[in-house]
Design a protein that fits this description.
The chain is mostly helical and 284 residues long. The protein contains 11 helices and no strands. Helix 4 crosses helix 5 (103-119), helix 4 runs antiparallel to helix 6 (125-139) and helix 5 crosses helix 10 (239-267). The longest helix has 36 residues, at 63-98. It is globular.
């Protein structure tokens, strides 16, 4: 998809074909999978998220079509969210157990994990496939159009700038909501960097930036999953379990915030145009 953004005059139909390929891959996974298969759901979500990132590289003149497709993809992700959240909660509980300070904390986390596994919701794969079908159908509306205003430098700089703003808000408030908003914007930057690095695999600046964005996204994802743990802990019947889990989560949140801010400072040290110029090898 990155070649589309870097070469004006490529047909929008050809650009959308890349999106359809990602959606076809996700549809194939879901149509042949089981609602409780966490790996299937995870791989499908990755393909859908990648398709959304690719859509952002299509010129703004097609924003109406893009919004329609993106709405269908968001709906598909929503159907897959229950299964993803259950799996993420279990993984976060396992990480918290590794960092627990006492046996009582570990026992409380084990009870929570058992409860989450017992009551985990299943993803509605049929509904998700329906939304993917709608998005794939909408992609055909690109037929006959031509991308005559491709600006990868501008698109990447805008995404980078939004991430820096989210970082400033997160550092000022230190709230879980602000860090999650930063993480959501970072996903788009990471997708841009991935696509551009695939079109120029020999670029060391792009490779480094992509790796840093990946590590930062992982840290912010781990931080967000702690919110799911706190939400699930409300269902525990004993107050002492809820209190121990809250204490373990707060400690882990502080450690992950420090790591995220340190990684964010390295990734977003430069101003947008300077960073993008260095990554793409153009004038800063």
């Amino acid at each position: 998809m990155a070649f589309v953004a870097k070469h004006p005059g490529v047909s929008a139909e050809r650009a959308a074909a890349h999106v359809r390929d990602e959606l076809a891959a996700a549809h194939g996974l879901l149509s042949g999978g089981r609602a409780g298969d966490a790996e299937i759901v995870h791989d499908a979500r990755r393909a859908i998220t990648r398709a959304r990132g690719e859509l952002r590289l299509i010129a703004p003149k097609f924003s109406e079509v893009r919004r329609q497709i993106d709405g269908s993809l968001r709906a598909a992700l929503h159907e897959l969210a229950p299964a993803r959240d259950a799996e993420a909660t279990l993984e976060a509980c396992a990480a918290l157990r590794r960092h627990a300070r006492c046996d009582q904390e570990r026992a409380s986390l084990e009870r929570l994990a058992a409860r989450v596994a017992q009551h985990a919701l299943r993803a509605d794969l049929g509904e998700a496939c329906g939304h993917l079908d709608a998005a794939r159908e909408a992609c055909w509306r690109f037929e006959g159009l031509v991308i005559d205003h491709a600006d990868p430098d501008g698109a990447l700089a805008r995404c980078y700038r939004r991430c820096r703003r989210r970082l400033r808000v997160a550092r000022a408030t230190r709230s879980a909501i602000a860090l999650h908003a930063w993480r959501r914007q970072l996903r788009h930057l990471r997708t841009h960097l991935t696509l551009l690095s695939e079109s120029d695999p020999g670029s060391e600046p792009l490779r480094v930036a992509r790796a840093r964005a990946h590590r930062l996204a992982t840290t912010l994802g781990d931080h967000h999953d702690l919110t799911l743990v706190l939400r699930a802990a409300r269902s525990l019947p004993h107050k002492r379990d809820r209190k121990r889990i809250r204490r373990a989560v707060r400690r882990r949140e502080q450690a992950l915030r420090r790591k995220a801010f340190a990684r964010g400072r390295r990734l977003f040290a430069d101003r947008p145009r300077r960073a993008v110029g260095r990554w793409l090898g153009s004038a800063a």
